[in-house]
Design goal:
The structure holds 2 protein chains of 2 kinds. Chain A is α/β, with parallel strands linked by helices. The chains are: A alpha/beta, B mainly alpha.
């Protein structure tokens, strides 16, 4: 039973025992059976323990591939948390993460190891992936370490955008992941016959469904080559040719696939479950999917990184008009949702308030950031009797007449762009590093789903050149897609940049 | 037909790049911000119509299709 496990890597032990000769994970160039995945992870895990990581976090800095999965499992065998870093992470951002994290090791490849030479590693050892999986296995060493893990220990740390320009390390525990995928596999009926096509980057919490959902059921995980997210119209063919039964994608990708009209041309008889999470899914495009594939189960899932992945869900069970919003539904098993008004009282049905989450998926906090943690993770104000850890999402929601929760938006400057969570402040902090710029403001143009960067400068700037410079500090998904240079940015009476005026300018004049 | 030239002229015209010398036949069209993913769809439609070919997901697994030369390589395989 998954509920008695102390570490999520025990799911791999179980899968290797039951489905050892079955392919567990595949990418464009290789595939691993569950037994082989376990063997490689035990080799690398042995090496990590011998390097003396002693439960310290380990950064996995590799191209998206089966090697990442092997490394994540290896770090768990070593008893510590893993930290996924994108292969194209800006080095300055990685340096900030390393300074906050104080990792024991970084697992990477030779090309990236050379790039690491230029940044401050704070004493972290650099291990080359190919070498870590080439050594021997010491099972008694690994299992004596693993037996010391408890399920409230951290399993991974995922860095998410921080409003001051420094990313925050969301620290999640084993119990959160184990409970979550026990729920997903039973709710959606996944079995070892299923094939999942992974879209989510591994530094993004949606990938937890894919990775651990396959381990707990023995299903096969296919990592979709990155190229398909440029040529998204090719995705339906990829699903068909690989016999994919289940997808859990970010709405932006589902929207682009729907708009390409390929679903009308490519038959997908094997696809059974279409799940989505990470931003609002419009019914206009969902209806295009439903018309093309009427027999699939569709589910709208909701949850921030701070609650593991998903805390509420809605299985689409009726027709929706194109313009209607989809509910985010009800709490998942072992999760409780509370909507608090401005005075920290429970909001009445229909009344808007901040969505707050209690349950085993709630993260342990932000790594090495006790103050930030204390602001978002709080004692449930409705409970005077005992300690009850609650995460305040910053999302505004209400309970509809049918008892289903409806999402309304944010209470701060955090936005979602193509499913990625972005703090406008992080873009502004990067833009302030540009030469010849006096002041900056990043505004989200919701109507056109794009980030507009306003610069106060007398210089002449081109968006493409600026973005090249910004890429040194922030990831590609945060780049602005429009630019406006002004001699002076408008200010409010108390001398803050006047975001409202800038937003109104966008709506009235365009750019 | 000069495949590379045809593709380059189409991309310069369709994505309003004009004669910008920063775009070469080996420039990463997407990472360098010349084309976005909606543009990728347009490129595939253009190739299929102009050269009367079908581009499949298998081509995409084998070829990266990120630069003009890489895109032309797929076309050369098929015509």
């Amino acid at each position: 039973m998954a509920s008695t496990l102390n570490s999520a890597v025990r799911l791999l032990d179980l899968a290797a025992g039951r489905y050892g000769s079955k392919v567990g994970v595949a990418d464009a160039s290789s595939e691993l059976t569950f037994a082989r995945l376990r063997e490689l992870a035990l080799r690398a895990g042995t090496r990590l323990i011998r390097e003396g990581v002693q439960g310290a976090p380990v950064i996995v800095y590799l191209d998206k591939s089966v090697n990442c999965i092997v490394s994540f499992m290896a770090v768990m065998y070593s008893g510590g948390p893993y930290v996924p870093a994108a292969a194209d992470i800006p080095l300055q951002r990685l340096e900030k993460i390393i300074a906050n994290l104080e990792p024991g090791c970084i697992i990477t490849d030779t090309a990236k190891a050379a790039a690491l030479d230029g940044i401050e590693l704070g004493g972290a050892k650099v291990l080359i992936y190919d070498e870590t999986v080439g050594g021997e296995i010491d099972e008694s060493l690994v299992y004596s370490r693993l037996n010391g893990v408890v399920d409230t220990d951290p399993i991974y740390i995922m860095y998410t955008s921080g409003s001051t320009g420094t990313p925050k390390g969301v620290t999640v525990c084993h119990r959160g992941v184990i409970d979550y995928v026990s729920w997903t596999s039973s709710t959606f009926g996944l079995t070892s016959e299923d094939v999942l096509a992974n879209q989510a980057p591994f530094y993004f919490d949606n990938s937890i469904f894919d990775i651990y959902g396959c381990l707990i059921t023995g299903a096969k995980l296919i990592i979709i080559p990155e190229q398909f997210f440029v040529y998204q119209n090719m995705l339906p063919e990829f699903l068909r040719d690989n016999g994919v039964t289940t997808i859990f994608w970010v709405p932006t990708v589902m929207i682009n696939v729907a708009n390409s009209h390929e679903l009308e041309k490519v038959e997908l008889p094997k696809l059974k479950r279409v799940l989505f999470c990470g931003e609002v899914m419009p019914n206009l495009q969902l209806n295009m999917w439903r018309r093309a594939l009427p027999d699939c189960i569709y589910a709208n899932l909701y949850g921030p990184t701070e609650i593991t992945d998903v805390c509420s869900y809605y299985i689409v069970d009726r027709e929706f008009e194109d313009h209607e919003p989809l509910p985010i539904g009800r709490a998942c098993k072992n999760m409780r949702l509370v909507i608090l008004d401005e005075n920290n009282n429970e909001a009445a049905p229909g009344e808007k308030g901040e969505l707050c989450v209690i349950g085993s998926g709630v993260a342990l906090g932000y790594w090495n950031e006790l103050e930030l943690t204390a602001r978002a993770f709080v004692q449930n104000p409705l409970n005077p009797s005992y300690n009850e850890w609650m995460y305040r999402t910053g999302d505004i929601a209400y309970v509809g007449g049918d008892g289903l929760i409806m999402y309304c938006g944010r209470k701060d400057f955090q936005i979602k762009i193509k499913g990625n969570r972005v703090e406008l402040g992080e873009i502004e902090a990067a833009a302030m590093c540009l030469e010849n710029v006096q002041n900056v403001c990043a505004v989200f143009d919701a109507e056109n789903e794009r980030i507009v960067l306003f610069l106060e400068s007398k210089g002449d700037f081109k968006l493409r050149t600026i973005n090249k410079e910004l890429l040194k500090y922030i990831p590609k998904y945060m780049l602005p897609s429009a630019l406006r240079v002004m001699e002076k940015l408008p200010h409010t009476a108390n001398d803050k940049i006047d975001r409202k005026t800038l937003g109104a300018m966008l709506r009235e004049e365009g750019l | 037909m000069d495949v590379e030239k045809t593709i380059e002229e189409y991309i310069r015209d369709a994505f309003e790049i004009g004669d910008d010398p920063e775009l070469t036949r080996d420039t990463h069209l997407f990472d360098e911000g010349f084309v976005d993913s909606l543009g990728a769809l347009q490129i595939v439609r253009f190739l299929e119509e102009t050269f009367s070919i079908q581009i499949t997901q298998k081509d995409l697994v084998l070829y990266p299709m990120n630069t003009i030369n890489e895109i032309a390589a797929v076309v050369h395989e098929k015509i």
